[in-house]
Every structure is written in C-alpha cells, then in structure tokens.
Design goal:
With about 450 residues, the chain is of the alpha/beta class. The chain has a single domain, classed as Rossmann fold. The protein is built from 14 helices and 18 strands. A 7-stranded mixed sheet has the order 7-1-8-9-14-17-18, sandwiched between helices. Strands 11-10-15-16 form a 4-stranded mixed sheet. A hairpin with a 5-residue loop joins strand 2 and strand 3. One of its GO terms (molecular function) is O-acyltransferase activity. It comes from Prunus persica (Peach). This is Phospholipase A(1) LCAT3. InterPro entries: AB_hydrolase_fold, LACT/PDAT_acylTrfase.
C-alpha cells in the first residue's frame, strides 16, 4: 500500500505521517489466522521437499487427497496425515506473515486477484502503511488448523511468537489481532497460560470469533462437507466431499459445535424429513435434534462414511474420541478469564443471512436411512451474522470488553473492511481523525452471556 495509512478520512501528507511515526514507538502487532486461514505445506520427511497443499488452484483436489487427508490419533490428540512419509508444516517466512497473507501466492492468482484467498493481505498493507515494520513491530501466526485449538504444539507456537514480538520490539507488550477460530485459539492460550498472556499481551482485538460455536456451518460441515468458495471459482478448489473427509477427523471442527450450555435465544437444531413404515403405511415426519441430540444423528449418518486411500478403505465414522477431547476444550474456553490490565475489543459481522438451523430432505422427498444425509444438500434457516458466524455467538465473548462493534460485512471481508481498519487504527493509537458509521456498545451498555 506504500507509505500512506489506509484510511480515506485522513488528510495529512506522507511527510507528516513519517514524522508522526518516527516520534511514536509502536507496540508490536501479532496477526492470528482462523480455520483455513494459513498456508499448509506437505513436507517429505526424508528429502525435505515442500508442496503447498492448502490453498492451491491447480491440482487442488488431487494434492489435497494425496497429502492432507488425515486420521485422528486418540493417544496423542493430534490429527495425522495418511501419508506416513510426509508431515504438514506451516511456512514461517516473512516473520510468519507469508502463511496468512495470500493463501495461494502463485503469479496466476495474483494476476486475477482471487479475493477468496486474500487473507490478511490488505490488513498487512494497512499496518505497514501506518508505520509498522515486519519483524520488529509486525508478525503473523499461521498454524495447522486441522488440530485442536488447545493442542500443545499450537500453544507453544503462539507463546514463541509472543516472546519473539516482545523481544524484537525492545520489550514492548504485544497487541493481538485474531480472526475467526483464531479467537478460540487465543482464548485457549489465555485460559491455559494466563500468566504468560498477561506478561506479553497489552490488547486483544478479536474479529468474527465463534465464541459459542457456529451451529449451521459446523453441523453441515460434519455431515456433508464445506465449500470454501462458491460459484465458478469453486471448480478450481477442493470439492465439498473431499473437504468433508478431512473435517470429520479435525478436532478444531468439533470444538466449534454449538455450546450446549450457552443460553441461546433459540436453540440451534438439525431437522430431518424422515420416512418410516408403520403397519404397512408410509409416514413422513419432521425430526428435530438439538445440540445434545445431534450426537446420535451424527453417529447414525456417518456410520458408513469411508474413503479409499492408496488402495485401502479407511473408515471415517463420527469420532467420539474427538468429541470427548472437544468437550474438554469447551470447558477450557468456558473457564477463560481476561487478565486485569489486558484490553479486549470485539468486532463481529452483522446484516447477512447466517446459517443457524439446517434441514435435510423434504416432505415430498424424505430421508429413509440417515446415512443418505451425507449425500444430500442442506436447507438452512438463518439468523443475523456474517454468513458464517451468528452475531449472537460472536458477540458473546464473556469478557469485560472495552468496546464491541457490529459491522455490516461478511466473514472474510471483515479482514479488508475500511471501517474495521478505522477501528483498529483508533484502538492501536495510529490514527488522527476517524469518522465511524457502525453500532458500538461500550462495556456499560453491552450484555454478554
């Protein structure tokens, strides 16, 4: 973006900006990505060759199946790739920023600018334009998002990043900006390592975090998969079914199921139009499953789920070992406390239809065997949110926030929204005059469940 700060309402010139920045020592910023928000490489254990497996446009589905399909190991708590000769790594180039910038950094993608893979790119440009320097006051944390949000490797990685940013800036506390599931990872770290969090963190700006889960999207992800992008561009990405086989074995997905202890305004449900035979007659009923009852539905629907890999059949039913792990993670999240002295800010998306309830089959075309769900397309009921995370969940952080701000933008678009940037600049103290048009609730006015 060059040397000018990205905010259309500023009217100072570059010389004034350079002088202001030179006179102001900036606290370091650490950007933390969400699910699907980090480049993943497949690395040969012996030869050390790397292949980008997430995200890539060319040969996306083929490489994903060969090198990223995984199974969960209940002994270690980690999801491990089926290809035993490789390991999944996250590149740490450019002080961790490369992995969370443009997810497919190929020349082709840059030429046509596929916006869906531009992750923190615009925000990085904005911060650099405001005087932040990569490796001194600006860092990134990408991670293997298949894994649990509280797994040791991810917790240790975040600790190292915080220490690095703290030392590189001359002992200044770090300001974290997290997106989506990255907020859950930060919450787990804060809950498990509260003293370390207090030592290194000054402010935490959280964007679009599913604090209480993302019921519609996650329920459907476990049953039918996930389409990363829609429309014509989807033909260049990993297919919905291919993604489904990965997600069934991902602890991070289970950890974003609806929190059953949260006081939802309306309980999220999975509904199924079901065909039964009784006394020689066919009966069609609409069955409903809440957050607890849905477990039996997942078990029945996924009982025959399997994939073929390297000439072998791999069974991938609903994983109760992951469910137990995720239940413990939910407890860690529920127990999290914001340390005194750390300022918390929450930005969440509104004004877009967001999946909440999900329905399979119809009255005229009902489901007979629940395993048929995995080969059907859902019908959603919607609530207000960012098209991925309901606003009700995203704003229910449970912390003493300095501000909670609702902004009309989609989930990933929040990372390049001008109004989001204006708030961030104001909270970081790197702006002069800001005109903000959004709903803002101070702590005294905000209610958090």
């Amino acid at each position: 973006m060059g040397a000018r700060c990205f905010c259309p309402c500023f009217d100072f010139d570059d010389h004034d900006h350079d002088n202001r920045t030179a006179q102001t020592e900036l606290d370091p910023v650490l950007l933390v990505s969400g699910i699907g928000g980090s480049i993943l490489h497949s690395k040969r254990k012996k030869l050390g060759f790397d292949t980008r497996v997430w995200v890539r446009i060319l040969l996306a589905d083929l490489e994903f199946k060969k090198k990223l399909w995984s199974v969960y190991n209940p002994q270690t708590g980690y999801t491990e790739t089926l290809d035993k000769d490789t390991e999944i790594v996250v590149p740490d180039d450019d002080y961790g920023l490369y992995a969370i910038d443009i997810l497919d950094p190929s020349w082709f993608v840059k030429c046509i600018r596929v916006k869906e893979v531009y992750q923190f790119h615009d925000m990085i440009d904005m911060l650099v334009g405001c005087g932040y320097k990569k490796g001194t006051t600006l860092f990134g944390y990408g991670y293997d998002f298949r894994q649990s949000n509280r797994i040791d490797k991810l917790m240790e990685g975040l600790k190292v990043k915080l220490e690095t940013a703290y030392k590189a800036s001359g002992g200044r506390k770090v300001n974290i900006i997290s997106h989506s599931m990255g907020g859950l990872l930060v919450t787990c770290f804060m809950s498990l390592h509260n003293d370390v969090f207090l030592k290194y963190v000054s402010k935490w700006i959280c964007i679009a975090c599913p604090f209480q889960g993302a019921p519609g999207c996650i329920n459907d992800s476990l049953l039918t998969g996930l389409q990363f992008v829609e429309g014509l561009e989807s033909y260049f990405f990993v297919s919905r079914w291919t993604m489904h086989q990965l997600l069934v074995e991902c602890p991070s997905i289970y950890e974003m199921l609806a929190n059953p202890k949260f006081d939802w305004k309306e309980l999220p449900e999975i509904q199924v139009w079901r065909k039964h035979s009784k006394d020689g007659e066919t009966i069609v009923d609409l069955e409903s499953y809440g957050p607890i009852e849905s477990i039996s539905l997942f078990e029945e629907a996924l009982k025959h789920n399997e994939l073929s890999y390297d000439g072998k059949t791999v069974a991938l039913p609903f994983n109760f070992s992951i469910l137990r792990w995720a239940a413990e993670t939910r407890q860690v999240l529920n127990n999290a406390k914001l340390p005194d002295g750390v300022c918390f800010y929450n930005i969440y998306g509104t004004s877009f239809d967001t999946p909440f309830g999900v329905c399979y089959g119809s009255k005229t075309s009902p489901i007979e065997d629940l395993s048929e769900i995995c080969h059907s397309m859902p019908q959603y009921s919607y609530v207000d949110g960012d098209e991925t995370v309901p606003a009700e969940s995203a704003k229910a952080d449970g912390f003493a926030a300095v501000e909670r701000v609702a902004i009309a933008a989609r989930h990933r678009e929040l990372l390049r929204d001008k109004t989001v940037f204006q708030h961030i600049q104001r909270w970081l103290g790197v702006e002069q005059r800001v005109s903000i048009r959004s709903k803002t609730s101070r702590v005294a006015d905000a209610s958090s469940k």
